[in-house]
């Protein structure tokens, strides 16, 4: 049995971009991790393909809108949409607004 962390223990804010992320997974030896992210309206975050080299990932949009660019493909997500990422590619998360995009990232390490 692993106790859930409290919000105080798990929230990390990147003050340079105002992105707020919360690691929701308890500390275990399982390869599964869940991270909730809030991306402010108008904000974008770019990640290189190398950051996805050893993980498999799905994104579930809870609130707002999210434009997710995966290599050359652009996915426009609405609340309730879930996207399974393919092979590692340069990616951009963009919240077009007018409200922030709040999404859950579920990943497994390979």
Can you give keywords for this protein?
single chain, 110 residues, mainly beta, 6-stranded antiparallel beta sheet, 4-stranded antiparallel beta sheet, 1 helix, 10 strands, globular
Oligomeric composition of the shown chains: single chain
Give the topology string: H per helix, E per strand: HEEEEEEEEEE
H/I helix tally: 1
**Proportion in helices:** under 10%
Side-by-side strand order of the widest sheet: 1-2-3-10-5-8
According to DSSP, the number of beta strands is 10
Radius of gyration, CA atoms, in whole angstroms? 14 Å
The major pleated sheet works out as:
6 strands, antiparallel
Shape: globular
Give the CA-CA distance, first to last residue.
Answer: 24 Å
Low-confidence stretches: 1-16
The structural class is mainly beta
Mean pLDDT across every amino acid position: 82
Beta percentage is over 45%
Characterization of the model:
This protein is mainly beta and 110 residues long. It is built from one helix and ten strands; from the N terminus they run H-E-E-E-E-E-E-E-E-E-E. The strands form two sheets. A six-stranded antiparallel β-sheet has the order 1-2-3-10-5-8. The protein has a four-stranded antiparallel β-sheet with strand order 4-9-6-7, with no helix packed on it.
